[in-house]
Amino acid sequence: MRNFTEREQVVETVNRLFYYTDFQQWEKLIKEVFAEEVILDMTSLGAPAIETLTGKQICEMWKEGFKELDAIHHQSGNYIIDIEGDIASVKAYAIASHYKKNATKGTTREFIGSYDFRLVKFKNNWKIDRFTFNLKYMTGNTELN
């Protein structure tokens, strides 16, 4: 990413988050996307509390949560980015679609909402160290049963 502007590097990191998650490339997420510790806020989805986790812990949690799914797809955009020194804040819209071919009450569910990210620049690489999902609504077979 040497030839990218700072803004492009930040967007690239967020895009890698979604792409690597969709293809379950956990090692790349740990190495390229997440800071050593990440403040993760998924309370809008029912998580009991905001947590501080390692990238490895997040990937293990997601791997377990996605193991019954046949496909995962994230689409993000409308990035609003502020960069001050080695700290970047990103606001983005996103849709996550989950597909399970054997579900009997509908094969898909979608999560529509926005994200708030904070990234820190570490050794010339931007890493996510704060991650909040803000659910607007869900559609489809929300339990994928």
TrEMBL record:
What Gene3D superfamilies does this protein's entry cite? 3.10.450.50
Specify the domain of life of the species encoding this protein.
Bacteria
Supply the InterPro entries for this chain: NTF2-like_dom_sf (IPR032710), SnoaL-like (IPR037401)
Q: Which residue numbers delimit the SnoaL-like domain?
A: 5-131
Name of one Pfam family that matches: SnoaL_4
Q: What is this protein called?
A: Nuclear transport factor 2 family protein
Q: Which organism is it from?
A: Fulvivirga marina
